[in-house]
Every structure is written in structure tokens, then in C-alpha cells.
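Contributing new records

If you add data, match the layout below exactly. Sequence lines come first and carry their own label; structure lines follow with theirs. Keep one chain per record. Anything else will be rejected by the validation script.
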Amino acid sequence: MIFDAMKLIQIALQQYILEAENLNTNEQIVILDNIAMAEFLGGTKTIEDQKIVMSLVNLQEEASLKNEPYYRLENGRTIYQNPPVQVNLFILFSILHSENYEGSLKRLSRVIEFFQWKKDFSFTNTSTAIDLSQEVQVFPELYSLTFEQLNYLWGSLGGKQVPFALYRVRLVALEASKRPAQSPPITVITLNSNGST
């Protein structure tokens, strides 16, 4: 589900940038990768200039949605199943630059414009040419960091800061595909004469 959510955003952002910049190319502008591995930041991967690198830098359980019931009634049977885990993904959109800093800032503006234009993503409202494993619906919002948090983030990613935006993508539900336990519902409780059930 995490991959599906990120892939959905990647494809939609790629389409937006191609249209906004009137580009007629098959070149991948938005890539899913670990920004800490970029050669520019001291890693081993060569990533070309002006690419938008999407990296998952943190995830967090949405604690306010943990109180869902562990059972439901369906066709006269009780289904016992743990509720899905609701998580927030923290996705870093970094634009690498070596010679063209101005171009990186323009690409960063495109990312922010894109999320201002599209506030939620799902297969029904996003045209994609891929078939992902399950229905996904996510809600991104810009997430601001303090200077201290910025220092920790980029220190852990390699020490050099590049133009970036951090988005919290809310409410990605993760649920195991294993079949839940079932049983008939309890409809009658019989008490013995000694008061036990």
C-alpha cells in the first residue's frame, strides 16, 4: 500500500510537470529513490540534475483512528478482524542541482503548485496507466519543519541540503490480505441455575 500511494503520486506529478512545462518526452522527471544515496550528497547513485526525487523519510500511525471495532456482522456471521493500520507518510520531494540552482527552484515551485491544485489522490480521480494492487486514497499536505528539525533531517540524509518540500500524506490504510476469522453471532445467552453462563 505504501508503494501504491507513492507510485500514484509519482505518476500524477510526472503528468502535471510534462503538461505545465510543455515537454514532449518519455524522460522520467519524478523518480522514487532514496535521496541519501545520491552521489551529490555523498552516496553511490548517480541521479541527473533537475530530477524530482521522492523519498519516504518517515511514517507515523494515525492514533486518532485506532478505536475501530475488531468485529463486524456480515450475512448473519460475525467477522473478527483487526482494523486496518492508518499511517501518515512523510514524503520528501528533493530537486538535485549542481549547475542550475534556478532551474531547481522552478521545479520545486511546480511541486508546490501541483499539490495546491490536487488535494487528494485516488484511482478514480487520477488517470494512471498502471494497475496497482489495491484502491488507494491519500491526502497530502505541506509539512513545515523548524530549523532544528531541518538540521536533523539533512544531517541524517548526508549533510548537504538541496531545494525540497516535505509533505505529510495522510491516511494510507494498511491491512493484511489474510482471510479473517468468522463465526456465527451470539444470539442467546443461557444461565445455569448456579448463575454461571
